[in-house]
Amino acid sequence: MRITSLVLAFSLAVPGLALAAQAIQDKPAKKPFTAEEVATFREPWAMAFLPDGRLLVTEKKGKLKLLGTDGKVGDVSGVPTVDYGGQGGLGDVVLHPDYAKNSFVYYSYVEAGENDTRGAVVARAKLVLDDKGGGALDSSRVLWRQDPKVDGRGHYSHRIAFGQGKLWITSGERQHFEPAQDMKANLGKVIRLNDDGSLPADNPFADQGGVAAQVWSLGHRNLLGLAFNAKGELWELEMGPMGGDELNLIERGSNYGYPIVSNGDHYDGKVIPDHDTRPEFNAPELWWTPVISPAYLLFYEADAFPAWKGSALAAGLSSKAIVRIAFDGHDATEAERFDMGQRIRSLAVSPKGDLYALEDAPGGRLLRLTPTDAAKPSESPKSD
User: Fold this and answer.
1) Are strands 364-371 and 355-359 parallel, antiparallel or unpaired?
2) pLDDT digits over 247-301, tens only?
3) pLDDT tens digits for 133-160?
4) Which among 171, 172, 215 has a CA at the least distance from the CA of 193?
5) Orientation angle between helical segments 17-26 and 2-13, nearest 10 degrees
6) In the chain, at which end, N or C, are there fewer CB atoms within 10 A of the end residue's CB?
7) What whole-number distance in Å separates Cα of residue 346 and Cα of residue 294?
8) How buried is residue 364: exposed, middle or buried, by Cβ count under 10 Å (0-12/13-18/19+)?
9) Sheet with 344-349, edge to edge strand ranges
C-alpha cells in the first residue's frame, strides 16, 4: 500500500524519524501526569487565560464562557451570530499582547454569505468583565474575512496568533483545493496583518494589491495549529488529506505546495505527488502517516514539565492524543505520544504555569494536567 511505502521512504530519507513515530503510535508513552477534570463545556473549540487566571472558552454554537478561579462558569455576551455546522461556528479566542492595558480580545467565527456560502471572520472587541462572573464583548469590529465565501462547511482553520508585532491568521482552503494556489483568494494561506487589521507595507505580496497583500505564505490545506517558539519563529500544524499531516516552519512568501503536492492522497483515492517530487515547494519539517489530525500547537516553556522545555505539544483529534515534538534546530521528531482516550481540541498554559487540555466533544472536559512525582522539577540543593 502507498501508506507503507510513504513511511518506508521517509524512514530512509531521515533515518530513525518515521520508524520512531511508528513505534510510538504502536505503544503510547506512559503519561507523566494525572488529568483532573476542572469543568465541562458544549463543543468547546478554543481557550485563553486572562492574566488573573480566569479562562475564556469558546463553544462552537456561538457561546463564549468565562471560567472563574472559583470553578464557576459565566457567560460573556456580545458574540455575533455564527453559522454553525460541520467544522464551523465560533472558533478561536486570543488576547492582545497588551491586553492588560487595552482589554482587547480577538476571536474568529464563521458567517453566512449569499447563495449558501460562508466564510471565516476575525474580529476584535474590548472585554468588559462584571462582578457576577461574566462579562460582555464591547465595540466589536471585524478585522478580516475569508474571500471569497464558498459553499461547504469545512476547512475554515481560522486560528489566531500574535508575534513579531503582528496579527497572524490561518485561512483554510475550504475543501476547494485550487484556492490554496490562487492569489486572488485568501484561502489556503497564512495571513499577516497589523493588530488593527490594516495591511503591513512589508508583506511579501503587498505590491499585488487585493487579498494577495494579506498573504505571508500559501499552498496550505487545513491549518489548525499556529504558534511562535521562544526564538520568534512561526510554526504551523496542518491536516493533510488521506495521510500527510504536516508540521511546517512558516517562511516569508513561501509556497507549501498544496494541492499540487502532499505526502497524503485525496479521499477518493486520487494520488497526489509527494513533496520530494517538486523541490520548488517548501516541504514539511515533520509529517505523519497515519495521521494524528492536529487541532492545536503549543510551544512549551513552563516549569511543571522541565524535560519538555523547548518542545511543541500538538493536540490530536483522531489520534486522541497529546503529541510531544522535539527539536534539534529545525529538525523535528515525534518524541512521545500520550493517549488521552478522547479527541483533544486545544491546549493552554495558565499564568501559574499549569498545563490544561480541552476535549473536543458535546460535553468536552477541561483537564488540568499535573505532573506525577517522576516528572516534577527537582529542588535545587540548599546552600549551607
Assistant:
1) antiparallel
2) 999 999 999 999 999 999 999 999 999 999 999 999 999 999 999 999 999 999 9
3) 999 999 999 999 999 999 999 999 999 9
4) 215
5) 130
6) C
7) 10
8) buried
9) 33-41, 364-371, 355-359, 344-349
DSSP state letter for 17: H
**Residue located via cell numbers 454553525:** 84
Tell me the three cell numbers of residue 300.
512549551
- Strand-by-strand arrangement of the 215-218 sheet: 157-163, 166-171, 189-193, 215-218
CATH topology of domain 1-30+155-296+321-353: Neuraminidase (2.120.10)
List active site positions. Answer: 155
Cβ atoms of residues 212 and 205 within 8 Å: yes
d(CA 102, CA 127): 9
> In sequence order, what are the residues at sequence separation of 6 or more whose Cβ sits closer than 8 angstroms to the Cβ of residue 333?
17, 20, 21, 286, 325, 326
Element (H, E) at 2: helix 2-13
Q: Is 106's pLDDT higher than 80?
A: yes
CA distance 4 to 382: 54
The owner of cell 505503544 is 27
C-alpha–C-alpha distance, residues 43 and 69, integer Å: 21
CA 329 to chain centre: 21
Read off the DSSP letter of residue 281: S
Cα 211-222-23 angle, rounded to 5 deg: 150
Residue corresponding to grid cell 491546549: 347
Terminal-residue alpha carbon distance, the chain: 65
Q: What phi-psi label fits residue 86: left (phi over 0), alpha (psi between -120 and 50 degrees) or beta? A: left
Single-letter code of the amino acid located at 275? H
Cα 87 to Cα 90, 212, 263: the distances in Å are 10, 25, 23
Residue whose C-alpha cell reads 498545563 in the numeric block: 355
Specify the residue for cell string 480566569. 54
The CA dihedral of 213, 216, 222, 226, to the nearest 10 degrees, is: -130
For residues 221 and 258, is the Cβ–Cβ distance under 8 A? yes
Interatomic CA distance for residues 345 and 354, integer angstroms: 17
Residue found by looking up cell 531521515 in the block:
14
Contact in structure between 136 and 128 (CB atoms under 8 Å): yes
Query: Residue 236: how many CA atoms within 13 Å on its side-chain side?
Result: 35
224 phi-psi bin (left φ>0, alpha ψ -120 to 50, beta other): alpha
Q: Which of 48, 39, 33, 43 is nearest to 340 (CA)?
A: 33
